[in-house]
Structures are given as structure tokens and as C-alpha cells.
Design a protein that fits this description.
The protein has helices spanning about 20-40, 60-70, 85-100, 110-125, and strands at about 1-10, 10-20, 45-50, 75-80, 105. By secondary structure, the chain is an alpha/beta fold. Strands 1-2-3-4-5 form a five-stranded mixed β-sheet, with helices on both faces. Helix 2 (about 60-70) packs across helix 3. It starts with a strand and ends with a helix.
């Protein structure tokens, strides 16, 4: 299973394929968040979960929201998912993230998520 992070047009893109180990995902995310801070890019992240088979616990989702908040306050987070289960899990993560002043939105279509991210990157930067 793979996890990767890249900067595309000023947006941080975090991609998971399969069932990624939670600690490995946090390590890659931390490196990516550091890249965003160093580059001066706006705090906008796109999580491509369309090929994910992860099933995170409530505690893991909440810890991830805190993790992002501590490293990139007021970040904007878009999540692209497949299926109702992943939509629901992403909304649960979104509710945790929003309690830490992170803006979130869940999408089923990549082009809509990219447009959302680019609009926020322009406003933020």
C-alpha cells in the first residue's frame, strides 16, 4: 500500500492507495506539511482517497485533525472519496477538523475538489 505527498499548483496533494499504515501516513503528511510551510504555499490540502481501503478509528481521525491543526493552523482541506462509507468517514473527520478551525469539504469528483482548492489557494495567498 502506498502513500505520497506532492505540491501541485500550490496545493498540497496527499494520496493513499490501499490500506496505508496510520503511522506511515502521518510521517508522509508531516513531511508534506513542512514542504508547504517552507515553500510559502497557501495552507490548502487535497486528500485523494479514491483508491483508499483504510478504515480509520474515531480516535485516529480526531488525532489527525489535531496533528494538522498544530502544524498548519486554519488549513483548508478537501477530501475526494469513493463510496458512501468513505464519504461518511471523511465527514466525521471533517467535523473533528472544523472544531479546530480547519475548513473542510468532501467530494466525490476530483475536478470539483481541485477547483475548490485552487479557489481557496488564490484567496489565501
Amino acid at each position: 500500500m502506498t502513500v505520497s505527498f506532492s505540491l501541485n499548483d500550490g496545493v498540497g496533494v496527499f494520496t493513499t492507495v490501499g490500506d496505508v499504515d496510520y503511522e506511515e501516513g502521518l510521517r508522509v503528511l508531516e513531511e508534506g506539511l513542512q514542504d508547504i510551510r517552507i515553500s510559502g504555499s497557501p495552507p490548502v490540502l487535497l486528500f485523494d482517497l479514491t483508491q483508499s481501503t483504510e478504515n480509520r478509528s474515531r480516535e485516529e481521525l480526531q488525532m489527525m485533525a489535531v496533528f494538522i491543526h498544530e502544524r498548519l493552523p486554519r488549513a483548508k482541506l478537501a477530501m475526494v472519496v469513493h463510496g458512501d462509507l468513505y464519504y461518511g468517514i471523511s465527514r466525521m473527520f471533517g467535523s473533528f477538523a472544523e472544531s479546530y478551525d480547519l475548513e473542510t469539504c468532501v467530494f466525490r469528483e476530483m475536478d470539483e475538489a481541485v477547483a475548490w482548492c485552487l479557489a481557496r489557494a488564490r484567496v489565501t495567498h
